[in-house]
């Protein structure tokens, strides 16, 4: 799919997918009745997604590697920490 869209189209598709992901994560927090720790984690995830897209726009191999592998690892870990912290803390 990204090959057909080109670089600009692929970046736009990724931006839309990440926006949808953030809406789903917000919905998850609301449905699960999570609290401040979760939403602080969600805010950090939002910042990570913005940084990821800024890095991807550079289009050099090092920035792309950082954007797609390292930032996704940070986002996943932050989500885990946010959920566990919210559930464990009273």
Structure in a nutshell:
The chain has 90 residues and is an all-alpha fold.
From the structure above, extract its key features.
90 residues, mainly alpha
List the helices and strands and how they pair.
Elements: H1 2-31, H2 36-58, H3 61-88
Helix pairs in contact: 1-2, 2-3
Report what the structure shows.
This protein is mostly helical and 90 residues long. It has one domain (2-88). Helix content is 90%, strand content 0%. The chain is elongated. The termini are far apart. The model has no long low-confidence stretch (mean pLDDT 90).
Number of strands: 0
Report strand %: under 5%
The sequence of SSEs as H and E is HHH
* Distance from first to last alpha carbon: 45 Å
> Low-confidence spans: pLDDT under 50, at least 5 residues?
none
Overall average residue pLDDT: 90
What is the general shape? elongated
In total, the number of domains comes to: 1
């Amino acid at each position: 799919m990204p090959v057909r869209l080109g670089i600009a189209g692929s970046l736009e598709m990724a931006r839309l997918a990440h926006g949808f992901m953030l809406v789903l994560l917000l919905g998850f927090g609301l449905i699960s009745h999570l609290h401040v720790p979760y939403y602080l984690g969600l805010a950090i995830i939002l910042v990570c997604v913005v940084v990821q897209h800024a890095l991807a726009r550079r289009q050099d191999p090092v920035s792309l590697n950082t954007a797609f592998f390292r930032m996704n690892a940070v986002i996943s870990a932050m989500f885990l920490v946010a959920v566990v912290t919210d559930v464990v803390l009273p």
